[in-house]
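Many introductory courses stop at the sequence. We go one step further.
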Amino acid sequence: MSDYLPPLAAIRVFEAAARLLSFTRAAAELGMTQAAVSYQIKLLEERVGAPLFLRRPREVVLTEAGQRLAPEMTRAFDILREAFADLGRGEGGTLIVNTMHTFATQWLAPRLGIFQLRHPDIGVRLETAQRLVDFSREEVDLVIRAGMGKWPGLLATKLLDIRFTPMLSPELAASIGGIHEPSDILKLPLLDSGDPWWIRWLDAYGLPHDVLRHQTAPSLQVQTFSAIAAMAGQGVTLLTPEYFRQDLASGRLIQPFERVIDEGTGYWLAYPENRRNVPKIKAFRDWIVEEAKRTVV
């Protein structure tokens, strides 16, 4: 039966070229020349007795035979990648989670102890960053990012909707006799006035935008920092309620209005498709999805 198996080098080249639909990109990914990729594809086509690609001036497309073969090759290489990724890690090891600062400090970090109690063999290393992560070059197992959940090559699971509403210190509210209606907010300094969330909030209540042009309150960019400034009485800020439950309960912050604006995006857990069956990733995914469902909305 081994006579039916073509050279593994040719199979590897075909899988990359079929996935990328480009001999040039396949060559770059595999560290080969384009000529070497073309040669390996030719060897494979001779072995199977049928063309696998149609060569066009600026692109290649799979033939019918290539379309039948490509998904099976991708599946086989996914299994191999997962096997080698799991080798030496076992069920446990270190799980590297890369996420955004506010999500890490206000939502994830306070809950990680629950995960550690359930999975004492998995050590979580939490990293924060706003930039995109290159899983092929960086030592990261999964990310949590804001957006629509559509990133090529990644599986994404929605955790929370992104929502916001004004919050401020009770002392600042008392300085103008309290907040009774949305327009009262405009009598106070607005933190991060350049944030597009303010436009959405003003539009939701039919309030003018020109108030934003005259703001001199600090722009802090990160919800955690803005919340600290708001608690210190420096201004009104827009925050995600799920992040600041304890501050609201303790009275350090107040939320004047029940209405919360939905941005239309969410916070997503994402990781490469070919790592979906890694035990430590599955364990964390199952736990955090369950934990997110418990979040009081």
